[in-house]
Amino acid sequence: MIYGAGSLVTGLAPNLAVLLLGWSLLEGLGAALIMPAVVALVAANFTQRDRPRAYGTVAAAGAVAVAVGPLVGGATTTYLSWRVVFFAEVVVVALVLVLSRAVADVPGDRTARLDLVGTVLSVLGLGTAVLGVLRSSEWGWVAPKPGGPELLGLSPTFWCLVVGALVVWVFLRWEALLARRGGDPLVRLELFTHPELTGGLLMFFLQFLLQAGIFFVVPLYLSVVLELPALDTGLRILPLSVTLLLAAAGIPRLWPQASPRRVVRVGVALLLLGILVLMSGIRLDSSAAVVAVPLSLVGLGVGALSSQLGAVTVSGVPTEQGGEVGGLQNTATNLGASLGTALAGSVLIAVLSATLAAGVQDNPDVPQAVRDRAGVELAAGVPFLSDTALEQALADAEVAEGTARAVVAENRAARVEGLDAALATLALVAVGALFATGRVPVTTGGGPVPGPAGRRRSTPAG
């Protein structure tokens, strides 16, 4: 309901402030509440054996959204209005509320009290760290960018990460203290003793880091480098959604007894292969068709991961703690997505700026006065611009035609270098993720079993 209210407010927004209230605040709160609830509801409505298939179906539904979203959004904003998109969300929310009556609810603990201190600390800690990561391309990671803000000679991003980590440490100490006092902590730290949960959360983090990085790079290539309209960009991303749907829904049905570790390992390998194929295909003379095969591979990889990780994270904890697991899962995915976007963006802009500056300096068609000026202005970083946008900017600045052509050519080459560098960084992360797959259990079939003092513990993963 909160998400639907946010969509309605956004659709009716008369100004930017109201739009941010509906889209950023209300829809953000609604989305944050939905994902933990989905995990808990799947855990409560399906047996241990059927959960992989259920989570695969949820992931498949997400794949359909990934496929339909850009197409519907692009067509609607092109031919109607962006407001129609948010009004349509209200209709979807109303339909979901009607259908939700067929789902068995998870009984809540009415005696539990909200951990206000823990909530504030977690929001401050994670929010500060994520803010620093998201602004890293503008501020720099450690050394401040020329002309950018600084604090004690260092980038604000560095201090955001330090302060965020310290606040998270205080949060963890508070949660442990509250649990010892018999209170209701926001996160029960004993959950992290379950290897299935920690392994699943780690892989969720890495999956969404890679996924967000790819989703950042590919649309930039299609919409900025190739200058495709929104609708065509959505069509080019469609192969990823189709293969994601097939893998997420098909693997649990065709191989219900498959080892989660093996499936996750294959999924990460497919992600890595898709990134490498995409790197080899992006060239100065490449067309939009070059993304079809690598995005298909990426879709298969993400689908394979999605078919297993949801069941893995809940397999070692009691069913009644599914909501807590869902909250941790949502946190891991959001952190991964934020870092993936920031990492790909930072590397792309850094390499683009350095390559363009070097190219302009070495280009004999660029006058010396322009080279000197470019050496200073490009040091702070350059935006990722299309040829059309750059040509217009140079024309507005009354740059000579020959010089403008040379700068556009250098920018075109620098963009490819930046895209390749961002993808190479993601490829290295994917290699690291292959090592991390060892944390995923071989099987989740045993599920939680009774433990000492009436508690439940996880069956050894093997």
From TrEMBL:
Gene Ontology cellular-component terms listed = plasma membrane
Q: Give the top-rank taxon of the lineage listed in the UniProt record for this protein.
A: Bacteria
Q: Quote any Pfam family the record assigns.
A: MFS_1
Tell me the SUPFAM superfamilies matching this sequence: MFS general substrate transporter (SSF103473)
Question: InterPro entries given for it?
Answer: MFS (IPR011701), MFS_dom (IPR020846), MFS_trans_sf (IPR036259)
Q: Which UniProt keywords apply?
A: Membrane, Transmembrane, Transmembrane helix, Transport
Q: What subcellular locations does the record give? A: Cell membrane
Question: What's its membrane topology?
Answer: Multi-pass membrane protein
Predominant place of localization: membrane
What PROSITE patterns does the record tag this protein with?
Answer: MFS (PS50850)
Q: Membrane-spanning residues where? A: 20-42, 54-72, 84-104, 116-134, 154-172, 201-222, 234-251, 263-282, 288-305
Q: Cite the GO molecular-function annotations of the record.
A: transmembrane transporter activity
* Region (Disordered) location: 442-462
Checking PANTHER family in the record gives: MAJOR FACILITATOR SUPERFAMILY MULTIDRUG TRANSPORTER MFSC
Record-given protein name: MFS transporter
